[in-house]
Every structure is written in structure tokens, then in C-alpha cells.
Amino acid sequence: MAQQQEESVPGGPGEHRTTTVENGRFCAARCGCGWRGPARRARSKARADAEGHLAALG
Ligand SMILES: [Zn+2]
Fold it and tell me: Which superkingdom is the protein from (predicted)?
């Protein structure tokens, strides 16, 4: 099992607050609503995924 370091997500659960989660050499976007983006090698890509998630919400 890979170690997982998660940054604390501000706000209550269910809110659309995105952050990035490092998972080994990869980085994935994550949202307070429970959504999670695919693992990316670059944090900038994970951030882009998070922006796409928020944009998709309208
Ligand atoms: Zn969300």
C-alpha cells in the first residue's frame, strides 16, 4: 500500500472545495464533495482537473 498524504480540506463535507492530494509520485485533485480526479504526475495537471470539475458544475 502506498502512503498517502492528504491535505486538510477546509469547509464542511459536501462543499465544492478542491485541493490536491499527493499519492507517492503522483498528485490527484480532490474535492470536498467526494469527487476525485485521476492521478497526475504534475500538480498543475491535478489543479487543472479540479478546475474542470468546478467548471462542469456550472
Ligand atoms: Zn465537488
Answer: Bacteria
CA pair distance 41, 58, nearest whole angstrom: 27
Q: What is the pLDDT of residue 58?
A: 76
Range of the domain at 38: 18-56
Distance 2 CA to ligand 1 centre (A): 25
Global pTM value: 0.72
Centre of ligand 1 from the C-alpha of residue 28, in Å: 14
51 inside domain: yes
